[in-house]
Specification:
The protein is mainly α. 73% of the residues lie in helices and 1% in strands. It has helices at residues 14-20, 22-34, 41-52, 58-69, 76-99, 110-114, 116-135, 140-163, 171-196, 201-228, 231-234, 240-243, 249-257, 260-270, 277-289, 292-309, 318-332; strands at residues 103-104, 107-108. The relative contact order is 0.14.
Length: 335
């Protein structure tokens, strides 16, 4: 993958993009709340808990930007953005069960308050609700890309489950997990925007690739933040990946570059039933020493630069410049 500066330059900041599309994203939020209309009160209560916890709404924003990039001027992109967020939220509910997570965005997880069974079932409800409404658009291409994304996300979860506590996992194997688990839905959101805008197949695929590489970069940046961020700002426990036996890119790099004795020490603690702060600090010190965190950031930026190449299929526009800013934000964010 190429190194170097981003292909598209922009004087905009992420704050500018949020402000420009603030009203659109507020309407996405309104759609989310209108769609929490189950006859089962507990479903509405649990879903409201996680939606009220906030979130960056990156996927709806990308869908809106890609639709506008392709000339779309109506408002159905806002409803579709809310449905993409339903699908994403369903994955978070399931993830928290699999990871036994107690915090999400700085507040207690749904599973922590209502239990694992309810969390899984509400996640299933949100998936079903989203796909039901997406089917109402009667657009085969849209149905196909989103159903394919849901399949890949499920496969990615299973691949990650199989890779837990596996120090011999290779980088290509890990990147495949990331592509399926995180990249697939971001790619689908971007392509749905292109479909809605009536873009030709070549431009639809360009935006799909753009989203796929963006999603991978986002996850790699998240891998790094799990070891380096301010835990309060990040809204979850630092070092959670390692404590759950998850071998992510910083750890893969460290296992590849550390001495034999250091690798054995890492593997011993990877399999340990508990982990104290002292061990985590030693681990992050090793990552700094061997450049594992810097390597992860560089790989994330590589994917962003590849993603930006696909924007060259489009003429300059405010939407294109905003997409470049969002791409940079994916790796420069600190939470």
């Amino acid at each position: 993958m190429p190194n170097g500066p981003p292909v598209v330059q922009s004087f905009l900041t992420m704050e500018d993009v949020w402000e420009t599309y603030r009203e659109d994203l507020e309407e996405v939020e309104a759609h989310i709340r209108r769609n929490l209309d189950s006859e089962v009160p507990l479903i509405n209560q649990m879903a409201a808990h996680i939606f009220n916890g906030g979130g960056k709404r990156i996927r709806p924003l990308l869908l809106i930007l890609c639709a506008r990039l392709c000339g779309y001027t109506n408002k159905e992109d806002l409803l579709l953005g809310s449905l993409i967020e339903f699908i994403h939220t369903a994955t978070l509910l399931h993830d928290d069960v699999l990871d036994e997570a107690d915090l999400r965005r700085g507040q207690q997880t749904v599973r922590r308050i209502w239990g694992n069974q309810a969390s899984i079932l509400v996640g299933d409800y949100l998936y079903s609700k989203a796909m039901q409404q997406i089917a109402n658009f009667h657009n085969h291409s849209m149905n196909e890309v989103l159903s394919d994304a849901c399949r890949k996300m499920a496969e990615g979860e299973i691949l990650q489950l199989c890779a837990t506590n596996q120090p011999l996992l290779t980088e290509p194997e890990y990147l495949r997990i990331v592509e399926y688990k995180t990249g697939a839905l971001v790619a689908a959101a971007c392509k749905v925007g292109a479909i809605l805008g009536g873009a030709p197949p070549a431009q639809q695929m360009a935006l799909y690739r753009f989203g796929l590489h963006l999603g991978i970069a986002f996850q790699l940046a998240d891998d790094r933040l799990d070891y380096t961020a301010n835990g309060t700002q990040l809204g979850k426990t630092l070092g959670q990946d390692f404590m759950q036996g998850m071998v992510t890119l910083p750890l893969l790099h460290l296992l590849r570059t550390a001495t034999y004795e250091e690798r054995q020490w890492i593997i011993t603690h990877l399999h340990a039933p508990s982990l104290d702060t002292h061990i985590l600090l030693e681990l992050t010190d090793l990552m700094q020493q061997y450049g594992s965190l810097q390597y992860t950031l560089a790989r994330s930026r590589d994917y962003i630069n590849v993603a930006l190449l696909d924007l060259e299929h489009f003429d300059d526009s405010p939407a294109k410049r905003s997409l470049a800013v969002v791409a940079d934000y994916m790796v420069s964010r600190e939470r």
